[in-house]
Amino acid sequence: MAETATLSKLLHIRENEKKEAKQAYHQSMDFFEGIATRLYTLLKRKENAEDSYDDCLSATSSVEIIKEQVAFIELLNNQIMNLQQQVQIARADMESKQMKLSDAYVEVKKFEKIIDTRKKSEEEMEIKREKASMDEVSIQQYLRYKNR
């Protein structure tokens, strides 16, 4: 019984670690989603800018407007490249925290399984002791009855 109490304490510690890993994973996921959303917004703006640039090329527009369009698209490209790097870093961080969370789940399951196995073993030992005790009582009653 003392062994399962110790294991229960360890299980409690592992559950706290799992809870912390889960919280860290959700924070990294939220951070990733925020950066990915910003990247999506920039890509959408670039797409609109390129459409506007194509419209300028097909219509009669001044060279200054076309230069401004090209400069704006170039600026968006630089921002997109920076954000893509940040998205990759955020994704890697999120994936590593997901691995830690999976490991924490496995550790908790291990301790739960060990505790269950030990409890079943203790119950089986108790049943064996009760049966041995009942056999002893039956033998004693039989011997008393036979000696009369």
From TrEMBL:
Subcellular location as annotated: Cell membrane
Pfam families the record matches:
FliJ
- Recorded coiled-coil stretches: 66-100
> Its principal location?
membrane
Q: Kindly give the membrane topology term recorded for this protein.
A: Peripheral membrane protein
- Keywords (A to Z) from UniProt: Bacterial flagellum biogenesis, Bacterial flagellum protein export, Cell membrane, Cell projection, Chemotaxis, Cilium, Coiled coil, Flagellum, Membrane, Protein transport, Transport
- What is the top-level taxon of the source organism? Bacteria
Task: Tell me its family.
Answer: Belongs to the FliJ family.
The name on file for this protein is Flagellar FliJ protein
